[in-house]
Write a structure and sequence with these properties.
With 531 residues, this protein is an alpha/beta fold. It folds into 4 domains: 56 residues, no CATH class; 55 residues, no CATH class; 221 residues, Endonuclease Chain A (Endonuclease, Chain A); 141 residues, 2-Layer Sandwich (Endonuclease, Chain A), CATH 3.30.870.10. The protein contains 19 helices and 22 strands.
């Protein structure tokens, strides 16, 4: 056995046939690495000089790094104290930034930002370019009698959060699961004559992804304008060839890159989670499906994918289109040209609808406030379906209060998780929910990914927002709110079927688990703010 860095005995045969021992020097792996670094540095004189200087002044360099790191930590902690939303969060960041700045400083600049600074600046500086469209739509809504009279306080709160008015003369079709959803989307894209707007969080280069690509290329070849936004992080594994094929075929495709601009380099914690399709400004789609085979239930490891989309017609389409246009302004640094901004009535329908686009560039935490107000407004029931359930204290308190005042509160979650951390966190709410009379169901017939809500007998919502901190504060989301008993009854029937395919979760499930599992649940709950 040879020892690294020592002479290793061996034998060799001399010319007269006798054997003599010889020693070979075996170098340490570390010394070989140092030699390689030295060889590289010798070829770059400047780096070589810097290296030699740093080696000669090692203690001084170390002290400088320590001082600079703690100075950055102290300065960053001031920013954290001034801007962090809660006092608990401010204390946590201040302590970690000053005690361990080497880890905490980069962590804060990635995870600690509460507002999408670049998007806010663009919204302020470029708002005048979108204002003419907004004003025109507002005038056309009023002229065509599309606006709903603000006779209810509850409705006016939603409108203020959306900064848009609720409209009437809309229609809505509930699309349950992927096959029905994408059949309807592809049908409307095929029928488009002027333009198609497409936006998804995840786009995959698989069978469904290529069906979409081929159809968009076909429409572009016909002269139809196609504008496509995908989230750069959500679609991180989308190959360059997929994007190049679309661009070469005349499709204007852009990534939603949260890091563009000098002030946004570290903002990788924000996502554009919206899923939007608009055809000719006359029909729009919003919901939980992304573009991938698993959303059609074709992934055998996942099984059935339970999700919901909604197809809308009427003046509400222009509100969805406006949300896309603002995202396009960020992604492409330009205004979409010559879109159809004239509202049209849906044939023989009078459904009231509101589009609520939310995100980290909003003045208030619009998504969180939307759910909070919905819960506080519920009189008879509130049913919520979400793949992720990690509410903050104010949302959980609102759910408890709703249940205590006699509201039927039900939460529908997946049985099988796709994100372990979020799955563990959801267990931490079981005991409190059960004590308050809140029923939490686990969907057992596949993976539940839908984002839906039903309030009383007339309010329903379908969109992209999950019931967690990321959707409440960090993601760009879009939700369509409907005030209509007929459509609410369809959503109710959908929920009832989902409850039949679910089981009631009990607090004893956590108590019956091992201590390591219960400890992991508590640790996961501590990380709720970044989930």
């Amino acid at each position: 056995m040879c020892v690294a860095g020592t002479k290793n005995p061996g034998t060799r045969t001399t010319g007269d046939g006798t054997r003599q021992r010889e020693f070979r020097v075996v170098s340490k792996p570390g010394s070989r690495m140092k030699q390689t670094v030295a060889d590289i540095l010798s070829r770059i004189p400047f780096l070589s000089r810097v290296y030699r200087w740093g080696k000669a002044h090692r203690k001084a360099v170390t002290r400088t790094i320590v001082v600079v790191a703690h100075l950055l930590g102290a300065l960053t902690s001031v920013k954290a104290i001034m801007e962090t939303r809660t006092s608990q969060g401010a204390v946590a960041w201040a302590v970690s930034l000053n005690t361990c700045p080497y880890v905490a400083v980069p962590a804060y600049w990635i995870f600690g930002q509460k507002s999408f600074v670049g998007y806010v600046k663009l919204r302020r500086s470029e708002s005048h370019e979108l204002d003419p469209f907004i004003r025109r739509v507002g005038k056309d809504f009023a002229r065509g009698n599309f606006l709903v009279t603000p006779d209810a306080v509850d409705r006016s709160v939603f409108e203020k959060l959306a900064k848009l008015s609720m409209s009437r003369y809309n229609s809505a079709e509930l699309l349950i699961d992927g096959e029905k959803t994408f059949d309807a989307i592809f049908e409307e894209i095929e029928a488009a004559e002027d333009y198609v707007l497409v936006q998804f969080y995840i786009v995959r280069d698989d069978r469904l992804g290529n069906r979409l690509k081929d159809l968009l290329l076909e429409k572009a070849a016909e002269g139809v304008r196609v504008y496509f936004i995908y989230d750069e992080i959500g679609s991180y594994n989308l190959p360059t060839t997929y994007i190049t094929d679309l661009r070469d075929g005349g499709v204007d495709i852009r990534p939603f890159n949260t890091r563009q601009g000098s002030s946004n380099r570290f903002q990788i914690n924000f996502r554009n989670h919206r899923k939007i399709v608009v055809a000719d400004g006359k029909v729009a789609f919003v919901g939980g499906h992304n573009v991938g085979d698993e959303y059609l239930g074709l992934d055998k490891t996942v099984g059935r994918w339970r999700d919901t989309h909604v197809k809308v017609k009427g003046p509400i389409v222009l509100a969805v289109q406006l949300a896309f246009a603002e995202d396009w302004n960020w992604a492409a640094d330009s205004i979409l040209p010559a879109l159809n901004w004239k509202p049209q009535r849906a044939a023989q329908e009078n459904l009231k609808a509101l589009c609520l686009p939310t995100g980290p560039a909003d003045e208030f935490e619009s998504c969180s406030l939307f759910f909070l107000h919905s819960i506080n407004s519920a009189k008879d029931r509130i049913w919520i379906a979400s793949p992720y359930f990690v509410p903050d204290e104010q949302i959980m308190s609102a759910l408890i209060l709703a249940s205590l005042r006699g509201v039927d509160v039900r939460i529908l979650l997946p049985e099988n998780p796709d994100l372990l951390l979020v799955y563990l966190s959801s267990f931490s709410y079981l005991a409190t929910a059960e004590k308050a009379g809140i029923e939490i169901y686990r969907y057992t017939d596949g993976f539940l990914h839908q984002k839906a809500m039903l309030v009383d007998d007339n309010i329903s919502a379908i969109g992209t927002a999950n019931f967690d901190n990321r959707s409440f504060r960090l993601n760009f989301e879009i939700t369509l709110l409907f005030e209509d008993t007929g459509f609410a009854s369809q959503v109710e029937a959908m929920f009832e079927q989902d409850f039949k395919d679910s089981r009631l979760a009990l607090a004893s499930e956590l108590e019956d688990h091992s201590f390591p599992f219960r400890f992991a649940v508590k640790c996961a709950r501590l990380l709720a703010p970044i989930q």
